[in-house]
Each structure stands twice: as C-alpha cells, then as structure tokens.
Amino acid sequence: ILSTFNKSRQIAVKKPEENKDLTFPYLAAPQTPGKIKSRKDFDDQGITRVIFENGTTLFVKQTDFEADQVKAALSFGAGESVEPADQAGLSELSQQVVNLSGLGQLDRDQLKQVLAGKNTSVSFSVEEDKFVFSGQSVTDETRLLFELFYTHLMDPAFRKTAYKLATKQFTQKYQSLGHSIEGAMQLEGSRFLASGDHRFGLPALETLKQTRLADIRQWITGAMKNSPIEIAVVGDMEPDRVIELAATFFGTIAERSGICKAEKGRHPDFPENKSTNIDVPTRIDKGLVLVAYPTTDIWNIDHTRRLSILSQVVSDRMRIKIREEMGAAYSQAAYNKPGRAYADWGIFNAYAVIDPEDAGVVRQAVKSIAADLKENGATKDEVKRALQPVLTGIKESLKTNNYWLNTVLKGASRHPVQIEWNRSIKSDYKSITRQDINKMADMYLENDSAATVFIHPAEKQAKDAGNKAGGAQGSED
Q1: Taking the CA of residue 215 as centre, how many other CA atoms within 13 Å lie in the half-sphere pointing to its CB?
Q2: Mean pLDDT of the region 192-211
Q3: What is the pLDDT of residue 223?
Q4: Predicted structure pTM score
Q5: Do 450 and 292 touch, CB atoms closer than 8 A?
Q6: At what angle do helices 434-444 and 301-318 cross, to 10 degrees?
Q7: For residues 349 and 453, is the Cβ–Cβ distance under 8 A?
Q8: 117 dihedral zone (left: phi>0; alpha: psi -120 to 50; beta)
Q9: Are 98 and 146 in contact (CB under 8 A)?
Q10: CA–CA distance from 440 to each of 193, 273, 381, 447 (Å)?
Q11: pLDDT greater than 80 at residue 155
C-alpha cells in the first residue's frame, strides 16, 4: 500500500480545465419591445396588471416586506391535470428532468458556473393546473431573472444524462417511501382517494420508468409553444422597470391560444364508502388511519374558507378524544384540500398516526366526531378557538412576498377572482359564525360517503381492520 502511495505521488496532477467560453445570456434580447394592449392599476392593493398585444399577461407588485428580495413566477399550460392517461408519472419525471437539464447551450453544471456569484435562480415545477418557472432574485439582478425566464422558454433542454439521473433519483426515493407509512400514502393512499387516477400520488416505479425522454420533451415543449404566458413579480423592485423587461423579453413572442384547462371527461372520482388496507415492509411499529370526505373545489371560496375552520374544529376534537382521552395517537390532524383544476373536487382528510392495533377504534372515533358535528354542530367557543390562529396567520401572511405571489397573483390571468379574494380575506374570516361551520359539517361530514385508508406494518395487521372497517370494501393495485 505504501509503495502504491509513493508511486502515486510521482504522477503530476493537472489543474481542472476552465471553460472560459461559457457565457450567459447567450440569446439576444428582442430588439423591439412588445406593445401594451391594456394596463390596469389596482390601487388599493398596489397591483398593476399589464396585458401585451400578443396575449402575455404581467402582474407586478412592489413591496418593502424584505429589502432586496424579488420573487417571480412564469406560468403556462395546464400542468398535471393534462397528464396523458397512458403516461402515469410523466409530471413527476418531467419536473425533475427539466431541473436537471439546465439550458439548451449550458448544462446544469455550466449554468451554475456562469451564474456563480449571482443571487438569481429559476426552478421548474408541475402544479395541478399549470407549469411554473419560479424565480428568486435581488433588485439589481431583475434583468438577469427575466433573461433566465426567457432562455428557459426559448431554449429548453431535455438531456439524456438528466433523464438517467432523474430515474436513478426516483429509484432511491421509492426505496425510501416504500418503507414508511407516509410514503405509502404517496404511493397508494392518494391514488385510492381518487379512485385510481394516476394524477394523484405517485405511480408504481416500473410504470414511471416507462416514460421516455421523448415523451417529456413533447409534453413540455408543446405547452411552452402553445400556451399563453403569465408572469407575476413581487418584491423590492421598480414596477415600471419590470414592465419594460416584460415588454422586451415576452411582449413580442409568438401569440399563443392553447387551452389551459383539464380535459373534459377526465374528472377524478371519490371512492365513496370504500376502504383500503396498505401493508408497509417496515420495522417501525406505527400505523396510519385516514378518514376522508368529498368536498368541493377552491373556487367556491365561501365553502373553502369555512371548511378550513371546520378542519381546525375537527383537529381540536381529535386531539382531545383520540390523543388525550384514548391515548391512541402519536399525532393527528384534519385538513381540507380543495382542487384547482377539477370542478367540485376536494377532499376533507382526518388522519392519525397510531399503534396499528388501535386502527379500528381510532377510525370509529373519527367517524363519531364527524357524526356529532353533523348532528349537533360545533360550539361557539370551538369556532372562536379555531378562528384565532387563522386570523393571526392571515395578518402575518399579508406581509410576505410569498403570499402575494403564490396566493394572489400567480394564476390570476385565468382566475381574476383571486385578486378579489384578497380584498375580502380578513373581513370574511372575521364574519364566520358557528352557524356557518355547522352548515359545512352538515353538508360534508357524511359518514355514509366517507372513504378510509389503513396503513400498517406488513407483519402486523391492524386489529380488526378488515371486519370492523364497515361499509363497502375496495382495493387498489
């Protein structure tokens, strides 16, 4: 060993070669800025909306919440909702491949090299109802942010090396998910609650691996070339400067008229009055019980807000009953998840992490809480306790760039009502009454419609899970 070491010391080590030819930006900016078709200032909210003649929409809001911070989103297409029926996992794999590929003339490592010392970055995501390039930057690098957005859109990359790396990363991820109750919910539970619709949760690994690089390229570039572009920018910057940059880089791109909605006839179905048992090969002696109720989409904002308060009431009752009185849960909570892409689609979930032997009694406790709320309603004190932290959270959120970008502006070109929601958010939540919450409980906490998920260690079946679950039984592959 020593001899080998001494020999190695005689070999000259070369300094890594630096590629001095790497530059960014490498695409020339359009020479003539696009013309503005309309401009509207929402003075009470400090928002400006600009629509260019080619259909590109820009929202911009200047804030002083955090000095030198700029956040932005470039949205297009209909995202996961239009994932082809025969290509399960395309959304997950596409997101990873795009992020690992870099740009057309610069791979990921080269892009990092040319951006060294900069404070601007862009990442890609596939959301339920749209594709999004999310960017964060600083005031002096706002032009660089727009150059990155422009290059990602005009010169995207789908590299074979990125595809192979993404597949390897997913293989590792699946190995981890396959040995935890939380992972089982992603791999099987979420899909069960949509009656097998692969746009929910994760598909089997072998199914995901059947997705080809060509499939990813065709799906993403099709949306890039055909879908209208929306840009939202929030933070410490000059709105007029942002409007100039948007006009330069996106005001003259080809007009797009693609549809940005989920396909008709591909609506997810809730598995009413069904249940599934999921075995997990794990040595950790914990299980999960989830009782789910069908609700509605986010666009019914009156119901969405009141269901969020109802979920707080249910969470509090679960804590008292299941954790404190029964001592049967490590953690528990309830939440409503309204859909954005699918009309009248939403799920109210109540879950508890438990000792697997307590699955039957915990499930019954959750249903008893729902039944009591449906029949007798919440108390005035319960509603007050549920509202207080929500109102505090709203007050704090209104002072963040994340709220204005992700809740108000992103997607507002398709759903202008989001801007109106911001105007009413504080007053509407303050106006919520016990009667409002009881109406939601009566309308949605219907045990005859509930679906149940049991997740437990494979070597230890949940006690009486099969014969005490009640209702029609279902299973998922």
Answers
A1: 19
A2: 95
A3: 96
A4: 0.90
A5: yes
A6: 90
A7: no
A8: left
A9: no
A10: 21, 19, 17, 14
A11: yes
